[in-house]
User: Which sequence fits this backbone?
């Protein structure tokens, strides 16, 4: 990946106890517009980094549901400077739709002097230039439910009403111990905190391996929001979390069930075709200078294994239920060859 310029790095990880911030801007974009933000084709822009697992959820959901034409996509540089997410991948360093250089400008347009950090994913109102929401937990649930009128024909039901209680329970466990757990381990400031967090990570991986041994998906026999949220952590595990975050009891590729499950999802349209390893690795290893002060990005692991047979189809299941796979990735959104296996 060409070097887009100096990145300031972030020395905070490893210097103070880790605690994930709540989403400050939690307005919802709904069919009835009850928060003042009605669902409307072409009105909003989804800002993401392909490096970020929380943003990765939104990219996958948008693609599976066929919202590409209704909700445009802005991809930030994986390397941040002191103003956080920036649009240096775009001509002249500006997002071509919003006309801004930094996502923080949309935050400032919404709330002057906002004291918190600038995070992705974020949904921005194009006419006003204001950030609507950075609530990564709710954004994808609303894509699946509130945005139904704009779904593609054949879009899957990623949050089926009859399974929501079970989906919510699984997602909360995965979030606590794994999605957030790898960060708690990686940013731990002491041995006790690290031991506890890393223990949670591998305990949850063991439970997930047992759960998925005889079923293709986490809940029911189709893909749901729960699978999306697990995938974005698993796909980064060996490349980043195993080494950079010291979650090294074993590699994902060393657990036959989880490795096959992750490959199954990676090879499913809408999942692997959104993943850019050439954004993921430099972001973690070059930005988190508090835990990797050299900024050296490791060469491995070999990515070819992601495309090997997984045989999970033998467990049955219908990936898209009564729906169909998404179509080809829009040319402008295709991940460059350097970022793919």
Assistant:
């Amino acid at each position: 990946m060409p070097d887009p310029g100096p990145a300031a790095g972030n020395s905070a990880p490893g210097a103070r106890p880790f605690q994930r911030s709540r989403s400050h801007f939690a307005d919802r974009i709904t069919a009835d517009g009850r928060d003042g933000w009605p669902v409307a084709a072409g009105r909003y822009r989804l800002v993401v980094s392909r490096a970020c697992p929380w943003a990765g959820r939104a990219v996958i959901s948008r693609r599976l549901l066929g919202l590409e034409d209704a909700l445009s996509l802005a991809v930030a540089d994986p390397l941040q400077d002191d103003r956080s997410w920036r649009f240096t991948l775009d001509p002249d360093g500006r997002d071509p739709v919003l006309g801004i250089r930094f996502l923080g400008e949309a935050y400032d347009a919404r709330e002057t002097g906002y004291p918190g950090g600038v995070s992705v994913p974020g949904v921005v109102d194009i006419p006003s230039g204001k950030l609507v929401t950075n609530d990564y937990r709710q954004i994808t649930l609303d894509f699946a439910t509130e945005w139904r009128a704009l779904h593609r024909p054949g879009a899957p039901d990623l949050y089926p009403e009859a399974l929501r209680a079970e989906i919510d329970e699984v997602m909360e466990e995965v979030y606590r111990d794994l999605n957030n757990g790898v960060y708690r381990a990686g940013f731990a400031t002491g041995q006790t905190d690290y031991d506890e967090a890393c223990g949670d990570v591998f305990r949850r991986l063991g439970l997930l391996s047992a759960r998925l041994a005889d079923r293709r998906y986490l809940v029911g026999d189709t893909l749901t929001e729960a699978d999306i949220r697990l995938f974005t952590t698993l796909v980064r595990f060996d490349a980043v979390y195993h080494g950079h975050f010291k979650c090294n009891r074993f590699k994902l590729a060393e657990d036959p069930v989880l490795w096959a499950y992750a490959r199954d999802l990676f090879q499913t349209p809408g999942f692997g075709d959104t993943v850019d390893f050439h954004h993921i690795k430099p972001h973690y290893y070059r930005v988190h200078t508090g835990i990797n002060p050299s900024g050296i990005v490791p060469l491995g692991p070999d990515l070819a294994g992601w495309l090997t047979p997984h045989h999970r189809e033998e467990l049955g299941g219908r990936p898209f239920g009564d729906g169909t796979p998404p179509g080809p990735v829009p040319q402008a959104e295709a991940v460059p060859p350097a970022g793919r296996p």
User: Anything to note?
Assistant: The first helix runs from residue 53 to 65.
